[in-house]
Amino acid sequence: MFAFLAENLAPIMFLSLIVILLMGYPVAFALAFVGFLFGFVGIEMELLPASLFGAIPDRIFGQMSNETLLAIPFFTFMGLILERSGMAEDLLDTIGQLFGPVRGGLAFAVIFVGAILAATTGVVAASVISMGLISLPIMLRYGYDRRIAAGTIAASGTLAQIIPPSLVLIILADQLGRSVGDMYKGALVPGLLFVAAYAGYIIVMALLNPPSVPALPLEARTLRGWKLVRKAAISLIPPLALIFLVLGTIFIGVATPTEGGAMGATGALVLAALNRRLDLAMMRSALYATAKLSSFVIFILLGARVFSLTFYGVNGHVWVERLMTAIPGGEIGFLIVANLLVFFLAFFLDYFELAFIIIPLLAPVADSLGIDLIWFGVMLAINMQTSFMHPPFGFSLFYLRSVAPARAYRDRVTGETIQPITSGQIYMGALPYLAIQLAMVAIVIMFPGLVTHYKSNAIAVDPSTIELEVPMPGDAGANPFATDGAGAGQVPAVDFGSPTPDFGAPQD
Q: Which residue numbers delimit the TRAP C4-dicarboxylate transport system permease DctM subunit domain (predicted)?
């Protein structure tokens, strides 16, 4: 029995974590509990040194001094201020008027506003709830199919998951040891393809079933001509300017993601003040929600540090690498299995939990197979997007359910009785968009250039002009990372966020 536990402590530890999570315990505390429990078990079995947990303070300090994670509260605060400033309402009203004469015009407006909100707020809940409160009653008023209306709103809100400045892209870049700016550049084209694919679905429905996506009636189109142009300019220019302020400065290298987030938060405050929506109550609410989300992320990250310390100590990373590299099919086989694993776990875990638990295990394997980690990260971000649309646990579906009418009501404009939206209609409406998300994962696997274009901005260097001088052991200027002559010329390995701890094993 002792020998069996000693050889299989890593898989038992991982399975124990899954069981505890399925029992409903908070993820941060479940991670820390499993890490401490199996750490003490390993110490008692003399598989791990008694000084194992002495590394925890350094790990906690390392995370708290990680400047990349500062972008999370900045972008969260920016999104919450914009969500409360009335920007979403103005955008939906204006773009709805622009596309009013077209069948599916309101659905197009929801998709395009979802993309703009994604590029400014980066918060899925804010996008879904805002559009659900504003556009869903209008879509029901003018006869939209309930499944299409619900699915379009829920799916458009999830664009905040993949279109920069997405919070999950920041987390993935940190866990993969890659630049947030490169992750943003790599995710931009797939994010725009999502917008096109969602709009394409509405076009198909307009052709196959026109009554399900009617055009806006003439009496509802109150803005025309110069008034419509003026309203569009007033509504669109400020958020587009904010997008350039945040993403443009990051892409051209003027600002880091953290600095871009700070500028975005400042810009959001300015826009809210210009709209005369900025007050103390809004500030207090936004700051409270930002602190709550940031604390949630940090606690999960610290729990993951405790878990990974023990997991790497019992050679769990070796077990995962052997398991994943043994999959037939090489690189493609690994990508398929990794995406199936993430898709399955997304039924039970949200994207933060997946990023902190699964990514540190898969990233070293992907790197050893020569897979571009930005490509791999964007691919998994698209896959994690499905966690918002999975019936019956998708968070977007829950957000929409919270604002969708649960009982019949009389419309205040037409006076007609509007029937409620059932949970079944919300789930059925989500399925076509879930299929689009899965198809996008396959497209990104087949066409890596959709992501790896981020490399095209790198400075080209002619190899023939490079002169290399390899320092000899003991020379001045030898590799500072080398501990002796044998290590000269080596480059430090990529840190995936959970390095193998050094337990001070005795040297021969």
A: 14-450
For the chain, count helices (H), then strands (E): 22, 2
pLDDT, tens digit (0-9, with 9 covering 90-100), for 250-273: 877 788 888 888 888 888 888 888
What's the chain's Rg over C-alpha atoms?
25
Asked if 79 contacts 164 with a C-beta cutoff of 8 angstroms, the reply is no
Q: Is 499 helix (H, G, I), strand (E, B) or coil?
A: coil
**What angle separates helix 105-120 from helix 146-157, to the nearest 10 degrees?**
20
How far is residue 365's CA from residue 85's CA, in Å, rounded to a whole number?
45
Q: What span, in angstroms and rounded, lies between the C-alpha atoms of 253 and 247? A: 10
**Residues 67, 258 contacting (CB under 8 angstroms):** yes
Q: What's the Cα-to-Cα distance from 313 to each of 60, 119, 148, 496, rounded to whole Å?
A: 17, 40, 50, 15
Query: Does 444 have pLDDT greater than 70?
Result: yes
Residue 87 CA to residue 84 CA, distance in Å, equals 8
pLDDT in tens, 315-325: 877 777 788 77
Segment 128-132 shows an average pLDDT of: 78
Cis preceding-peptide flag for 405 (omega within 30 of 0): no
Calculate the CA 182 to chain-centre distance.
15
Phi, psi of 246 (to 5 degrees): -85, -60
Question: Per-residue DSSP letters for 42-70?
Answer: HHHTTSS-TTGGGGHHHHHHHHHT-GGGG
Q: Name the residue type at position 80.
A: L
pTM: 0.76
Quote the mean pLDDT of the chain.
78
Give CA–CA dist 177/298, Å, rounded.
Answer: 17
pLDDT score, position 414: 64
Residue 121 confidence class, pLDDT cut points 50, 70, 90:
low
Which is nearest to 307 in space by CA: 22, 8, 42, 24?
A: 42
Q: Which of 134-143, 380-389, 467-476 has the lowest mean pLDDT?
A: 467-476
Residue count of the chain, please give it.
Answer: 508
